[in-house]
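ok here's the first one, seq then struct tokens
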Amino acid sequence: MNISDIVNSPEDPILEPGPGVVDIHTHIYPPSYMALLRSRTTVPMIRDFEDAGSRLIILPDENDPSTPSIARGRPIGADFYDIERKLAFMDKHHIHTSVISLANPWLDFLPSNEGATVAGRVNDDLNAMCGQYPGRLYAFGTLPLSAPTFQVVAEILRLKELAHVRGVIMGTSGLGSGLDDPSLDVIYRALEKTDSLIFLHPHYGLPTSVYGPRASDYGHVLPLALGFPLETTIAITRMLLSGVFDRFPKLQVLVAHSGGTLPFLAGRIESCILHDGHLTKEGKVGGRRKIWDILNKNIYLDAVIYSEVGLRSAAAASGIGRLMFGTDHPFFPPLEGDKEQEWASVALNTEAIRKLCAAPSRDDLAIMEANARKVLRLNS
């Protein structure tokens, strides 16, 4: 039995091949954002070191003066900001269309009185980049979440007028208190009413103390492999527990990295809700939407999980029709040898999809391009 017999509904339309592969998880820092980072003297910022070149420092603990410059943040080369490099990467990996988005830390760090202006500038930059390559580039816009709420809503409405924008990217902090913050309701309402998809992406990770005293011996493996996915899982679970999807039943969220650990832990989360005395006493268990309903109607997952095992869990949780291919470019580049070689991070995700779907197949086509083209209206 093919997995589509389990997770696809019989009324799903027959899929026809489009122009080619769609990458919905791919980042860039446009010119105005690069200028902002270079102008700053506090994190986040770009610093130039004589022995380490330009480095992007986005977390406070990355800027410890006792840390060697070669270990501070990450090197930031042309792949992070040059749109021509993005197109070259796409061509190398046979990707026809990319939905580009600003990488973390977005605009969370800006003073309230600067957020809206910078967001407008960055979003216009992204839209202009896409306009240079019609049909090949689209974008997720960025919201000025540090700005007054009315300015955030105004930018949501303005983004709908930009020809190449297809939703917004958002981190897990929201307005500073997480995605279960009631103050976000007006923003969720605006996103729902404008049919604007949220691309939910991690940034803050977990407290470094959870990784133990020898964490530095393991490079960035613990925060990237575990911190990011768990940050995402906690954020989306807080949305579930606080009733965001009950209040906004049409809100759509695309969760990065195949949902973190959400697909694997969904059953445990649901069981804990049902057995929680506090939630029961507060009347928060009866009448709510179950996690499985939300996974199938409100949650999309990218396929950036690097193995068939994890991808199978994502497909079983949300369905083949709610999975979309991504690369996470320009992160996870080859470390050695020819930088123009095929990126292993791309090959691993592609191989996982092919194994899951017994490619070439209808399911393979859905994940690699058709789902994104339909959900994000990439042909319009």
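and now the second one, same deal
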Amino acid sequence: MTPSSTTTTKPSPFAPSTSIPGHGTINIALLPPSTPTLHTLSYQYPLKLISPDPTTLSSGQKVILAFLLTYGGGLVAGDNINLTINLAAHTRLGLVTQGSTKIFKAPSRDVVSRQIVKVKIANGAALCYLPDPIQPFRESCYEQRQCFGVEKGASLCVLDWVSEGRRARGERWSFWEWRGRNEVWSWSQAGEGEEKGRSRLLLRDNVILDTSAEGFSEGLAGRMDELGVFGTLIIRGPVFADLGEYFKTEFSSLPRIGARSWSTSTEIPQLSVEEGRRAARQKKEKEDGVLWTAAAVRGLVLVKFGAKEVEGAKNWLGSMLRAEGTVQREFGDGALLCLR
């Protein structure tokens, strides 16, 4: 008779993992006397975060750049990303991607890929978030929620855009559903009692693109008026004050119905350098089928735009941001990676 043997498992000397799939954290802290540093950078599959060495600008300002990535370049059906970002007072973060985020085909409408981003920006801090566009494939479902909490002196520049899919494969807004919501809340660490931490909604921008919507026999592609990309740019705070004013000024200068458009006129008027640049850009906008608008909303500037193709939208947005100069001056060339 064989004696029974028992196996004992020794406890691990390491603490149990608290990591959750798809969760990530970026914390930017300020070390004495005034040195911004990447205090925390953590992530779990399918999310990946990379941050090179901080960039010191000609002004002496140190900017931290982080890349928001996914394994395989996109999200498969059912993937969930949950990213939390905290910027301490007087810090700067540029958040970019290395290419469009693909949303792969889902087995059914019930299997949704999601991305949730929660950001808190303290007084004097600034976030420049300029990712590449989301590219949803045929029969995919995607939901994105981004919430930005800003203190009184905080600054924010956020780009959120989506393309029609893979045009080379005949995809024209042929996904099942795309939902995007951006919220900006004011909040404060100061105060006492109920006033401390109290928040107030400044902006809620909600976009729903659903191919199952009733009353549209031509489908989503027919309702997009031949646009191949649609996007939103949100601008707020003292760092981006000039940029916001620039968009409002340029929008007010667009030719109105019945007005003379020098960009298409055969006459050659005497234009200043700025007027000539504006006329050339407006001519290019017409060629690329760019449509856009800008409006002031509770201390923010909200820009909506669309174009026939992603490249046309990149050309337009890149020309606007480079002509004004704030992003390059305050965050460096790396912050404009998505517009190259």
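notes on #2: The chain has five helices and 19 strands. The longest helix spans residues 273-288.
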